[in-house]
Write a structure and sequence with these properties.
This is DPOD1 polymerase. GO terms for molecular function: nucleic acid binding. The protein is an all-beta fold and about 50 residues long. It has one domain.
């Protein structure tokens, strides 16, 4: 990739977006999810959603 430029699937080998959701006042998140293009190894404590 190029610094300051959003990743491109044609150039960048890994594209992933991760999110953590927390209820106000809670200490622990109720949702940890990673969205990836193509496959991804399992990640402990997170749900992985892979897309082609």
């Amino acid at each position: 990739g190029v610094p300051g430029v959003f990743p491109e699937p044609q150039q960048d080998p890994v594209i992933a977006i991760a999110a953590v959701a927390l209820r106000q006042g809670a200490r622990e998140p109720f949702l940890r999810v990673v969205f990836t293009l193509r496959s991804c190894a399992p990640l402990r404590g997170a749900t992985v959603r892979s897309f082609d």
